[in-house]
Amino acid sequence: MLTKKAVIFVAALLLSACGYHLRGAFELPANMKNIYVEGGSGPLREQFGQVMKTSSGQLADSRKGAGIVIKIFNEDFNRRVLSLSTRGKSNEFELVYRLDYEFANAKDAQLMARQPVEVRREYYNDQQFMIAKDNEEAVIRNEMYQQVVQTIINRARVVLEAGAK
């Protein structure tokens, strides 16, 4: 029993020493531990909340006390048909997720001007497995939200580090 606990303890030490961290976790600067997201859809805000939770930060309920305010504009999710089968059914889809964002501090002073971000994905729509394809599209959309949030957080880190110099 003691040996088992020792092995678990040593494994935990080795994992923490090698820089292991949860997928999607970021090492956030002190002024990014509390962010406020203004605008944006429910799934996008939920993804921000998950990233902040795994990165030992939190999503603020208001601007007061937030280290950075992320303003979301013109959020748009489009789905278009790329190819059709011989029966006229859609075989391939393209998903495009686009938004504009900017950074401000808690007093609404602009830290970075408005920037666009866009993510595109294509997937094959097999007509025999329609239910599975609906689930696949939901997974792809979630991954697109994750990618956009990671892009915005990485950009915010760069802007805050440049402003601190």
Automatic annotation (TrEMBL):
What taxonomic lineage is listed for the species of origin?
Bacteria, Pseudomonadati, Pseudomonadota, Gammaproteobacteria, Methylococcales
Q: Per its record, how is this protein called by name?
A: LPS-assembly lipoprotein LptE
- Chief place where the protein resides: membrane
Query: Which residues does UniProt call coiled coil?
Result: none
- Return the HAMAP family for the record: LPS_assembly_LptE (MF_01186)
One GO biological process term: Gram-negative-bacterium-type cell outer membrane assembly
Gene Ontology MF terms in the entry: lipopolysaccharide binding
Pfam families assigned to the protein according to its UniProt record, in alphabetical order: LptE (PF04390)
What does it do? Together with LptD, is involved in the assembly of lipopolysaccharide (LPS) at the surface of the outer membrane. Required for the proper assembly of LptD. Binds LPS and may serve as the LPS recognition site at the outer membrane.
- Where in or outside the cell? Cell outer membrane
Source organism: Methylobacter tundripaludum (strain ATCC BAA-1195 / DSM 17260 / SV96)
Alphabetical list of InterPro entries matching this protein = LPS_assembly_LptE
| UniProt keywords, alphabetically | Cell outer membrane, Lipoprotein, Membrane, Palmitate, Signal
The signal sequence is 1-22
Q: What quaternary structure, including any partners, is listed in this protein's UniProt entry?
A: Component of the lipopolysaccharide transport and assembly complex. Interacts with LptD.
Q: Does the keyword Signal apply?
A: yes
Source taxon at top rank: Bacteria
**GO CC terms for this protein?**
cell outer membrane; transporter complex
* Bilayer topology annotation: Lipid-anchor
Q: What gene codes for this chain?
A: lptE
Family indicated by similarity: Belongs to the LptE lipoprotein family.
